[in-house]
């Protein structure tokens, strides 16, 4: 029996699916917070834990790539999907961290809409990751993500319009605008990265069609 220091294959589909499950769990918790959950601190802590687990998965995928000779799809594609999923999870954590730090007494409706949009898009991306090994039937998910992104863009316009419409008089109001801008920026970035992930997966599927 021959012994090789370099395994010929790796469980990359399984690892990428585990990674997407972490992102979905974090997006669910964030949506609960923005929907008015009472145990916000517990959910913030859980998101931090999930992000830590995601970091471990990300490093494991990189390690497996360095040890694996034959991969089911190009190493560059696995690496890109890995990094983008890690980015999405990191951004969800940043939204969570800043929301906890700012301790908003009132969560603005447009923020709730945007986080719900993010959760829905992460769910569609997760479906695409699950289908990556078959490379079939992803078109409907691509289309849903595209439409969700358009809806999220409209929600962001409403959010910014609501934020900057009132005449700012007091310093505390200016601080509040700054805080919400920080939140909206990161939600927008997370949504954009989910859309990019969908395009990366679509590119992989087309490459191997």
Walkthrough of the structure:
This protein has one domain (12-207): Methane Monooxygenase Hydroxylase, Chain G, domain 1, CATH 1.20.58. Helices cover 78% and strands 0% of the residues. The relative contact order is 0.15. The protein contains 6 helices and no strands. It is mainly α. The protein has helices at residues 12-34, 40-67, 75-102, 109-130, 139-164, 171-207.
What descriptors fit this protein?
209 residues, mainly alpha, Methane Monooxygenase Hydroxylase, Chain G, domain 1, 0% strand, globular, disordered N terminus
Give a brief outline of the structure.
The protein has 209 residues and is mainly α. The protein has helices at 12-34, 40-67, 75-102, 109-130, 139-164, 171-207. Mean pLDDT is 90; it is low at 1-8.
């Amino acid at each position: 029996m021959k012994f090789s220091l370099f395994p010929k294959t790796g469980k990359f589909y399984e690892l990428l699916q585990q990674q997407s499950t972490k992102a979905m769990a974090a997006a669910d918790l964030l949506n609960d917070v923005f929907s008015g959950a009472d145990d916000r601190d517990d959910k913030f802590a859980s998101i931090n834990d999930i992000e830590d687990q995601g970091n471990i998965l990300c490093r494991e995928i990189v390690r497996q790539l360095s040890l694996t000779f034959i991969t089911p799809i190009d190493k560059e594609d696995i690496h890109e999907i890995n990094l983008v999923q890690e980015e999405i999870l990191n951004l969800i954590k940043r939204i969570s961290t800043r929301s906890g730090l700012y301790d908003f007494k009132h969560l603005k409706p447009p923020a709730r809409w945007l986080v719900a949009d993010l959760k829905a898009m992460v769910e569609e991306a997760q479906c695409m990751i699950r289908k990556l090994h078959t490379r079939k039937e992803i078109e409907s998910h691509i289309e849903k993500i595209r439409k969700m992104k358009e809806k999220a863009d409209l929600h962001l316009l409403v959010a910014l319009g609501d934020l900057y419409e009132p005449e700012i008089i007091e310093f505390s109001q200016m601080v509040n605008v700054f805080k919400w801008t920080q939140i909206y920026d990161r939600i927008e970035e997370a949504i954009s990265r989910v859309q990019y992930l969908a395009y990366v997966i679509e590119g992989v599927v087309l490459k191997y069609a």
